From TrEMBL:
Protein name: Lipid-A-disaccharide synthase N-terminal domain-containing protein
Residue span(s) of domain Lipid A biosynthesis N-terminal: 26-97
Pfam family, one: LAB_N
GO CC annotation: membrane
Alphabetical GO biological process terms: lipid A biosynthetic process
Keywords: Membrane, Transmembrane, Transmembrane helix
GO molecular function: lipid-A-disaccharide synthase activity
TM annotation in the entry: 20-40, 52-73, 79-100
Signal peptide limits: none
Length: 110
């Protein structure tokens, strides 16, 4: 048991301390931003008592996804690059649709 804890301690130190650099920091910031989109969506839905996807969800998706893409490119991870790269199109398209809807709505109220 003590040997297993020692190996775990060594692995945690090597993984989270030894290799820590600016890229790891960027990865954590990006992951935090990407996670915040779910928090924003959940809180908005709880307040409305129905499923809601606010603009902030798509904004966090775009910025978090873009930062995660940069991180994935630097790490040369093809699966992560493809996943984040494709997602960016969806986030941009949703923000585009929201902007167009708002523009139409503003024009209708005049």
């Amino acid at each position: 048991m003590i040997e297993a804890l020692s190996h775990l301690s060594t692995w945690l130190h090597d993984t989270f301390v030894v290799q820590f650099d600016g890229w790891i920091l960027l990865g954590f910031v990006a992951q935090f931003m990407f996670t915040m989109r779910f928090v924003v969506q959940w809180l908005a839905s709880e307040r409305a008592k129905r499923s809601v996807v606010p603009v902030a969800f798509w904004s966090f998706s775009l910025f978090g996804g873009a930062l995660l893409l940069v991180y994935a490119i630097q790490r040369q991870d093809p699966v992560f690059i493809a996943g984040q790269g494709m997602g960016l199109f969806i986030y941009i398209r949703n923000l585009w649709l929201i902007a167009a809807e708002r523009k139409t709505s503003m024009a209708d109220t005049r």
